[in-house]
């Protein structure tokens, strides 16, 4: 194995904890939603249906902990919470928009490959 390959593997290993935090399906989708505009919890939930209340809460907390999302409580008659993307989170906008566009463009091909795979004899 060449030293370049070994270095690439070391870089991959060192980035794993970060990728685990930001690259899961809900994080990508939440950040994509928040890149367009700050949103309340229920607005995010409606846009990401069928995400569960628990999954959205956990993902938002994880994103806030990692400095990618800001949570602001608005004192009204009923307390409202608005989530917005932070400058650090905004740096993910371009790669996530590209990833979502790729998924939209190639989703049909993925589905066809899955159907072909599932139709193969065991």
Overview of this protein structure:
The chain has helices at residues 3-22, 25-36, 41-47, 53-65, 87-90, 93-119; strands spanning 39-40, 69-74, 80-85. The chain is mainly alpha-helical and 122 residues long. Strands 1-3-2 form a 3-stranded antiparallel β-sheet.
Quick overview of this protein structure:
The protein is mostly helical and 122 residues long.
Short descriptors:
mainly alpha; 68% helix; 6 helices; 3 strands
Helix content: 55-70%
Which residues sit in consecutive blocks of at least 5 with pLDDT less than 50?
none
Terminal CA distance: 35 Å
Structural class: mainly alpha
Number of helical runs? 6
The Cα radius of gyration reads 18 Å
Shape: globular
| Strand order across the largest sheet | 1-3-2
Query: What percentage of the residues does DSSP assign to strands (E)?
Result: 5-15%
| pLDDT averaged over residues | 89
Largest sheet geometry: 3 strands, antiparallel
Order of helices and strands: HHEHHEEHH
């Amino acid at each position: 194995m060449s030293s370049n390959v070994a270095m690439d593997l070391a870089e991959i290993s060192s980035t794993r904890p970060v990728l685990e935090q930001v690259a899961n399906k809900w994080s990508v989708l939440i950040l994509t939603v928040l890149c367009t505009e700050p949103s309340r919890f229920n607005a995010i939930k409606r846009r990401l249906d069928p995400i569960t209340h628990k999954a959205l809460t956990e993902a938002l907390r994880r994103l806030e902990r990692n400095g990618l999302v800001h949570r602001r409580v608005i004192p009204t008659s009923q307390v409202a919470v608005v989530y917005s993307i932070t400058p650090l989170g905004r740096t993910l906008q371009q790669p996530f928009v590209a990833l979502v566009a790729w998924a939209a463009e190639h989703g049909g091909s993925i589905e066809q490959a899955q159907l072909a795979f599932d139709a193969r004899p065991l």
